[in-house]
Amino acid sequence: MGIAKYRRIEEDLRKQILNGEFEYGDRFYSESDLIRRYNVSTITVIHALKNLVNAGFLVREQGRGTFVSRARKQQTVEFSDIEIFNDRGVREQVEIVSFECCNDSKICDILKLEQDETYHRIIRVRRIDRIAYMVQVSHIPSRYIKSDISPDYYHSIYQRFRDDFDIHLFDEASVETDEVLFPAPPKIAAALEYAEDAPCVLQHKTTILSDGQIAEYTLGYKRWDFFKIELKRSTSSTSSR
Question: What residues does the HTH gntR-type domain cover (predicted)?
C-alpha cells in the first residue's frame, strides 16, 4: 500500500521549511494554493497542515492565514523531568505487565503507520523503593520489535533502540505534553497502589527521528508526589516578521 497523499504533502512541505525555502514568520501557502499545487481535496490539505501545526512547524491565525512558526527560531526551551529519587542511592525496578501487537487506528495515525501496519504496546510499571511511581504505556512500530525475543528484552526500550538499531532516542526530537488527571483513572490508581481520589500526571511523549518517522509514542501515568519539572528558556536576538 502506498503512502497516503496527505503524508506525502506533509513531508514535502516539511522539507521546504527545513531547507530554508521559507523564513521563520513568513506567510505560508494557503489551502487553495496547496489544492492547486498538489491537485488534491480540501480534506487532504487540511490534514497535512494540521500535522505540521501540531509538530510546531506552522502557526495558523484566524482571519490572517498560515505562517512558518517563529518560536522555532526565537526561543529554545530545555525541559527536564527531574527524577526526585536520584539522590536516594537506590535502583529502579521495571516490570513488564503487558506486551502485545496492535492495530488501533488512532495510535497508527499518531505513529504515521498505514492501515495494514502494526505496532507493539508495552505496558510497564516502574518502581523505586518498592513504590510503584509510574505506569508507562509505550507504542512502538513493529518494525522496531524483534518477534522472536522474550518481552523481558524490552525492560529498557531506549537501550533496545540503541543496541539493536543504533538509534539514541534521548538525542532525537520529541514533543511532550503533561496534564494532571484528578482523580487518577481507577486502573492506574490500582497499578500505582494509590488512593482512588489522588491525582496523577499524564505525560504524552512522541519521539521523532530525523527522517520524520515516529519511533515511539508513550503515555506515562506518574504519581503526583514523584513529579517535578525544570524549564530553561533562552532567546535569540534574531527577530522576524
Answer: 3-71
